[in-house]
Amino acid sequence: MSKPRWTGVYPAASTEFKADQSLDVAATIKHVDAMIKAGVHGMIALGTVGENCSLEYHEKLDLLRAVVSSVKGRVPVLTGVAEYTTALALRFAADAAKIGVDGLMVLPAMVYKSDPRETIAHFRAVAGATDLPIMVYNNPISYSVDITPEMFVELADVKTIVSIKESSENVRRITDLRNLCGDRFSVVCGVDDLVLESILLGADGWVSGLVNAFPVENRLLWDLATEGRWAEAREVYRWYTPLLHLDTYVKLVQYIKLANQETGFGSETVRAPRLPLVGEERERILAIIRKAIATRPDPAKYGK
């Protein structure tokens, strides 16, 4: 199997719901298409922002079929694998492969907080269930399981594990991974408000949440940084950072979906137990979003 090197901006795409919280496949596909037309490099369905754990099993497969059919190979399509047991993760990985996704973004098992031995066993098992390439999603802040650089040394013999989404909020990890693993894995930034620092340290890609609402600006920041135009990249980053902070809170899904609604890319409807924002919190987040919209950078200023 040739190993992909997932680079560039990959949205953790939001999942759209109708007013009654039923799955809105058509609206989700419309949003995915808009982000691809804006220049993203790949697509991840059913991540945290995609409310993976709030969907029924059959809904996940229905959504994946629609995304793969709509994208038609324009960009790679990955799916999140976030299940409560290893057995269910194996089943989902196999079903996703049949649908035709290009790769898997695999999380530790949900709810139970596995120790390092159990965590490694989980990833080895999922990798053994499919030939698809795998991005391991490390997010100890949200999921309380930390996959350390030393653990990736142990996983280096698993040929289908090719990439790491590093969301520990510790950018030192990028250098530690390079020092321990060399170029064995591609490393992508998974924390929006650490992306410029991550690119400087050698990150290959960016799995982003706020790209859902600001795909053009996301691509602009990526291009400026990877071209080494650091002064201009910092200028865009300083504009963007108040928005990017929204990716780091417990209610990141509600915040990002509210931004989607304000920018015309979707609805703020989420599935319970999440609820739409209300009161002071909603007004505070709206103020951040609306200020950013009013002052958004013009790509033409940067020759883009």
Molecular shape: globular
**First-residue to last-residue Cα separation:** 36 Å
Coarse structural class: alpha/beta
CATH architecture level-2 label? Alpha-Beta Barrel
CATH superfamily: Aldolase class I
Our Rg estimate from Cα atoms comes to 18 Å
> Which sequence of SSEs, written as H and E, runs from N to C?
EHEHEHEHEHHEHEHEHHHH
Quick synopsis:
The chain is an alpha/beta fold and 304 residues long. It has helices at residues 25-37, 57-71, 86-99, 116-128, 140-143, 149-155, 172-181, 195-200, 215-226, 230-244, 252-262, 279-294; strands spanning 8-11, 43-45, 77-81, 103-106, 134-138, 161-166, 186-189, 205-208.
Descriptive overview:
By secondary structure, this protein is of the alpha/beta class. The protein has one domain (8-302): Alpha-Beta Barrel (TIM Barrel), CATH 3.20.20.70. The chain is 45% helix and 12% strand. The chain has twelve helices and eight strands. The protein has helices at residues 25-37, 57-71, 86-99, 116-128, 140-143, 149-155, 172-181, 195-200, 215-226, 230-244, 252-262, 279-294; strands at 8-11, 43-45, 77-81, 103-106, 134-138, 161-166, 186-189, 205-208. Strands 1-8-7-6-5-4-3-2 form an eight-stranded parallel β-sheet. Strand 4, helix 4 and strand 5 (134-138) form a beta-alpha-beta unit. Helix 6 packs parallel to helix 7 and helix 9 packs antiparallel against helix 10 (230-244). The longest helix is centred in the C-terminal third of the chain and has 16 residues, at 279-294. The chain is globular. The mean pLDDT is 97.
